[in-house]
């Protein structure tokens, strides 16, 4: 059995005549935390959707957790998705139904429990355990729509984690959050990866979101992988300049990365 | 003094239509698709029209009406808004316009064929006052089927209410469960339409949940309270109408709307420091 958590070979995704993703080869080993960077429209979210089997019009080989995504039927896909925790980029529109934080987290156990089987006591205990672990205990009975954006992100991470996933896909988990909440979410990602055998693919725009345990960065631009390696190899001022424009400098400190206006790399 | 032999099925029909529509309202309001009622009504009308054109009459028209509503619900359930790049309400608008067009084409055939369309019209615009025990049993059967479905697939429905796309990504069989729910909804609404009328049903698939969501948090509590508000609207509206001699459907609609207003006032009072 391969040690790869995910493997893409000659993958092409088109939207009409436009190619939105073209990856010759990409392999992520089990247990890795990989940062997936790139400007808007680079194909980051499309790549995650390919991994989940949610993207139409995919050509090439996509293998996730040892399963060929393109060959799976709806049952096989559902089974694979239960092994993947996914935190989407866009928060669901506020539902008219006032679901509580605890109910939203429990959605992660729904597919695992299976059809026609109610959630049992161990399921709810697992839900409460993750609510506690992510510091949401005081909010468990609150409506999801009533809590802050950062708390909602944490709730969705808890929802993904109660699936007991082998692979965690995080699509810009700190989008629209203030500095304080961004740091809390980064700490959560770091702690999760250090405390359990979990493969993480973290899509982000900002280098600041890469946690200290991130050992590899893949850069996408216009649907193609343009760089792949250790953060110190990939995150150069020249590369950031080519992606986002000139006048930006990469700063590294204590295993974290940031971009500031200016020239050169500051360590 | 009420003649219970006549009025008992009317009251039972009111409670059942209110309670079952209250349960539906939790999902219809929760998913922001109140237009579903109009869409299903016109699909049922189109089915009944073509059933009548084909020679069916009386209660037999319920069969093509149910067929039309169920096929529309099936189409709606299988249509993935993300893949079609359309909002669910836009898809419903499209289906509504198609079924309405079909219904009116069919109605246009009645004068050509020298027939009356009264049977078809009464199917969709029934009155609670003409509800008989045979109608009540039909409503009870459809309500029980929906209730059992929600009991069996409650956790999946909760996930779909939160986000259908997220539910799919989490490995939940969202399309199958949602399609099943829509088909049962179409059946229940068609049965309720022909018994108690469209106006009342449109209000009862919205107002009970709108009132319940003001007062409670959580899926289970919202369902119980919405069923209660629906049943209170159905029975209370009927009793008020019997006392005041006002039209029952209109009184039920107004009572259910007043419950939403009362719930909003209670919520505002509870939030005051």
Q: How is this structure best described in words?
A:
The complex is a heterodimer of chains A (267) and B (273). Helices cover 32% and strands 29% of the residues of chain A. Chain A contains eight helices and twelve strands. In chain A, the strands form three sheets. Chain A has a six-stranded mixed β-sheet with strand order 6-7-8-3-9-10, sandwiched between helices. Chain A has a four-stranded antiparallel β-sheet with strand order 2-1-4-5, with helices on one face. Chain A has a two-stranded antiparallel sheet with strand order 11-12. In chain A, strand 9 and strand 10 form a beta hairpin. The longest helix of chain A is centred in the C-terminal third of the chain and has 17 residues. The relative contact order of chain A is 0.16. Chain B has one domain: ABC transporter involved in vitamin B12 uptake, BtuC. Chain B contains 13 helices and no strands. The longest helix of chain B has 30 residues. The radius of gyration of chain B is 19 Å and the shape is globular. The chains are: A alpha/beta (267), B mainly alpha (273). Chains A and B meet through helix 2 and helix 3 of A and helix 1, helix 7 and helix 8 of B.
């Amino acid at each position: 059995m391969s040690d790869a958590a995910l493997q893409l070979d000659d993958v092409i995704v088109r939207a009409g005549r436009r190619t939105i993703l073209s990856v010759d080869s990409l392999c992520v080993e089990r247990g890795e935390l990989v940062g997936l960077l790139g400007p808007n429209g680079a194909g980051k979210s499309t790549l995650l959707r390919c991994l989940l089997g949610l993207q139409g019009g995919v050509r090439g080989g996509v293998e996730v957790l040892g399963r060929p995504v393109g060959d799976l039927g709806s049952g096989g896909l559902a089974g694979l998705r239960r092994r993947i925790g996914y935190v989407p980029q866009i928060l669901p529109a506020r539902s008219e139904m006032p679901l509580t934080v605890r109910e939203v987290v429990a959605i992660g156990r729904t597919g695992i429990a299976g059809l026609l089987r109610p959630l049992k006591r161990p399921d709810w205990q697992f839900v409460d355990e993750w609510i506690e672990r992510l510091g949401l205990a005081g909010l468990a009975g609150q409506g999801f729509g009533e809590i802050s954006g950062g708390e909602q992100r944490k709730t969705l991470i808890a929802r993904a984690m109660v699936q007991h996933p082998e692979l965690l896909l995080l699509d810009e988990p700190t989008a629209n959050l203030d500095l304080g909440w961004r740091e809390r979410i980064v700490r959560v990602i770091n702690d999760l990866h250090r405390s359990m055998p979990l493969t993480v693919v973290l899509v982000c725009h900002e280098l600041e979101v890469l946690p200290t345990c991130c050992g590899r960065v893949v850069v996408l631009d216009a649907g193609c992988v343009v760089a792949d390696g250790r953060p110190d190899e990939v995150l150069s001022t020249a590369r950031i300049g080519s992606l986002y424009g000139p006048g930006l400098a990469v700063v590294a400190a204590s295993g974290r990365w940031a971009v500031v206006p200016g020239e050169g790399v500051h360590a | 003094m009420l003649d219970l032999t006549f009025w008992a099925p009317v009251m039972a029909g009111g409670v059942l239509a209110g309670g079952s529509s209250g349960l539906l309202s939790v999902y219809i309001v929760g998913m922001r698709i109140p237009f579903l009622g109009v869409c299903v009504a016109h699909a049922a009308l189109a089915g009944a029209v073509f059933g009548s054109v084909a020679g069916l009459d009386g209660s037999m028209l319920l069969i093509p009406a149910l067929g039309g509503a169920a096929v529309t619900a099936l189409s709606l359930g299988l249509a993935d808004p993300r893949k079609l790049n359309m909002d669910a309400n836009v898809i419903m608008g499209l289906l509504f316009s198609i079924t309405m067009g079909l219904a009116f084409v069919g109605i246009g055939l009645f004068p050509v064929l020298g027939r009356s369309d009264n049977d078809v019209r009464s199917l969709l615009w029934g009155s609670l006052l003409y509800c008989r025990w045979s109608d009540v049993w039909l409503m009870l059967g459809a309500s029980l089927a929906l209730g059992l479905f929600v009991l069996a697939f409650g956790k999946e429905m909760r996930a779909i209410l939160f986000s259908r796309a997220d539910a799919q990504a989490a490995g939940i069989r969202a399309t199958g469960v949602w399609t099943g729910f829509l088909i049962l909804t179409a059946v229940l609404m068609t049965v309720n339409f022909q018994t108690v009328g469209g106006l009342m049903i449109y209000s009862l698939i919205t107002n009970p949940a709108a009132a319940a969501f003001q007062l409670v948090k959580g899926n289970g509590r919202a369902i119980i309270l919405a069923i209660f508000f629906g049943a209170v609207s159905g029975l209370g509206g009927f009793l008020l109408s019997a006392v005041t001699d006002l039209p029952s459907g209109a009184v039920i609609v107004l009572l259910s709307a007043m419950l939403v207003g009362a719930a909003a006032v209670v919520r505002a009072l509870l939030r005051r420091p």
